[in-house]
């Protein structure tokens, strides 16, 4: 990092300053005024307009505070100051420092960076099926230009830039969505009914996206490979040359840097949809989405346990923490500590009327030395193990046998349906995808998973591929039919269309 870059980074120093709210209000005012074509402002103008904008947020600053803040921002590099000779009527006015302030290059860049930062934080996470379709359309347009022999740098540049922006948006939104799902799964105070409704919507949303991702990944991978075979390197170089054409001195280093940047973008797109030495990002996203469903079910079970069990240690600890936070003084906090954890003198372990009378006569307190106090009798079991059996009836136990039997029945039914789906698909013979009859829910989901695993392993759309299922129980062999036929698989969700393949599914 150069010294010039380090100095430019001082434009962010105001965020941690004591008067950060005032500094942010001044800089936001300069940004607002520049958008309305006001380039420079005087301290008096800043004071007048800022007094209107910050009404209700914090106390309106004085003119002297505004001038000090402007000088400090100029020292950090957010603003630039220049002499203001307007309204000079006397010699004293001429020699008195008067300045005009405007945003500097570093200050404007810092404001843009903060705006992007705030925008990214507010963006909702989502799994964009529309982005997958847009990527397919852009790749098809890029392939069509290659097949037609058209190498127009402007068209190629537009397509590649649109492809890069759509792909970046797909990746960032997917990451935000999965982080949000994980935070929701980790919640412990959510109402059970609200969480169940959220769970149903989320599972349906994930299943719909996974189905779209399986079909789109194969198509996108094939288009990427075809585009690379039609002279991609020449196009990337032409796009890089066009990108640096407007520079003052477009030398070889600038061209190499731009070409390297575009090549890295393409490799990122390639790694997202094509598996080579490591699983593709699309495959990892599918695995992440799948693991979210069991995590949701586990959270539902935990919430249900809290409702049925008599005690919940984590909830008790959270309630105790809230009590400590509301304590008005340290004495109240210490009293709560002693009450919650029983931190009294050990001579209070056994108290009866006879003991109290004896202590009253001897004036014994909790501060009396053990050498001078009345001996305390304890049971041999307490001396040996540190615990004494509690008096009274045994605590009531919560019978969860019915709930366990219900869960066992659900697990057995799910295992039966999965086994039936395996029997339905693992025919052990070579057949077309279109030869499958109408599939039920489990069989259709299992077939989609197998097709997704197989298609992610492809590096050439015309090559055959063999892969095992995630649990290792099934083996699939997939090969193109070479006749460009479209297969249709009927299911309870509707009709599934795609390029026909020869498929063989066997048990291992």
Radius of gyration: 36 Å
The total count of helices amounts to 18
- End-to-end Cα distance, whole Å, is 57 Å
Largest sheet: 4 strands, antiparallel
Tell me the helix content: 55-70%
The helix-strand sequence is HHHHEHEHHHHHHHHHHHHEHEEEEE
Number of strands: 8
Shape call: flat
Calculate the mean pLDDT score and round it.
77
Strand order of the largest sheet: 3-8-5-4
Q: Uncertain segments of ≥5 residues (pLDDT<50)?
A: none
Helices and strands: which structural class?
alpha+beta
Number of domains: 4
Molecular structure report:
It is a single chain. The longest helix has 38 residues. The strands form three sheets. The protein has a four-stranded antiparallel sheet, with helices on one face. Helix 7 runs parallel beside helix 9, helix 8 runs parallel beside helix 12 and helix 9 runs parallel beside helix 18. The chain is flat. A hairpin with a 2-residue loop joins strand 6 and strand 7. The chain contains 18 helices and eight strands. It is an alpha+beta fold and 508 residues long. It folds into four domains: 117 residues, Winged helix-like DNA-binding domain superfamily/Winged helix DNA-binding domain (Arc Repressor Mutant, subunit A); 182 residues; 50 residues, no CATH class; 83 residues, no CATH class.
Question: Any chance you could write out the topology, listing elements then pairs?
Answer:
Elements lengths: L2 H6 L11 H16 L7 H11 L9 H14 L2 E5 L7 H5 L3 E5 L1 H18 L6 H19 L5 H34 L5 H38 L2 H12 L8 H22 L7 H28 L4 H14 L3 H12 L11 H10 L17 H6 L15 H25 L5 E2 L8 H16 L8 E4 L5 E7 L5 E6 L2 E6 L1 E7 L1
Antiparallel strand pairs: 1-2, 3-8, 4-5, 5-8, 6-7
